[in-house]
Amino acid sequence: MKKSISSLALIFFIMSSGLSAQDLKIGYTNVEYILSFLPETKQVQSEVSAYGTQLQNQLQSKITDFQSKADAFQKTAATMTDLIRADKQEELQNLQASIQKFQNEAQTSIAQKEQDLFKPLFEKISNAINVVSERENFTHVFSAGVPGVDVLLYAQPTDDISNLVLGELGIDPPAQSNN
């Protein structure tokens, strides 16, 4: 019942907005597919990877420092006064908390770095999609090919404008590509 009401509402909306089925031209594109052909993608991936490695090395250094202090504490704890032992335990707990905080912040930082570096590429792709859509008279273009984000459940392969977008970006699409 709800489905038929929704369908009727959609039909009414299309009719009332002056669009008929003949005026609609719907296409779709796979942004991830297009991104895989951009030369800049490898550079961005390399920068993100290098940044991640840098943070991983810093984390490993913190872990090594913690481990050596924990080992030293284990060896000398029996000879320490209660006050010094408590102080060293607190220092180790603080180091452990610092490592956990750094790990969380590093993950967030890597994700932000990736987002910042990919943003210009997505803008470039978006602009090319707009140019192709206007040139080819598409009224709607959907995104396809992103697991969990796909809004397109079915479409004819002839409605895929991904290779047209690659052409707009100056990239020769592969022959016989079904992305």
What can you tell me about this protein's structure?
By secondary structure, this protein is mostly helical. The chain has one domain (20-168). Helices cover 68% and strands 4% of the residues. It is built from five helices and two strands; from the N terminus they run αβαααβα. α2 (31-37) packs parallel to α5 (162-168), α3 packs antiparallel against α4 and α4 crosses α5.
Question: Can you give keywords for this protein?
Answer:
179 residues, mainly alpha, 5 helices
Give the arrangement of secondary structure elements:
Elements: H1 2-16, E1 26-29, H2 31-37, H3 39-76, H4 82-135, E2 140-143, H5 162-168
Parallel strand pairs: 1-2
Helix pairs in contact: 2-5, 3-4, 4-5
Structure, briefly:
With 179 residues, the protein is mainly α. It has 5 helices and 2 strands; from the N terminus they run αβαααβα.
Which outline best applies? Answer: rod-shaped
Report strand %: under 5%
Q: Kindly, what is the distance between the CA atoms of the first and last residues, rounded to a whole number of angstroms? A: 36 Å
Stretches with pLDDT under 50, minimum 5 residues: 1-12
Number of separate helices = 5
Helix-strand pattern, N to C?
A: HEHHHEH
Helix content: 55-70%
Radius of gyration, in Å, reads 27 Å
Helix/strand/pairing category: mainly alpha
How many β-strands, per DSSP? Answer: 2
How are the strands of the largest sheet arranged? 1-2
> Overall mean pLDDT score?
86
Reported for the largest beta sheet, the result is:
2 strands, parallel
Q: How many separate domains? A: 1
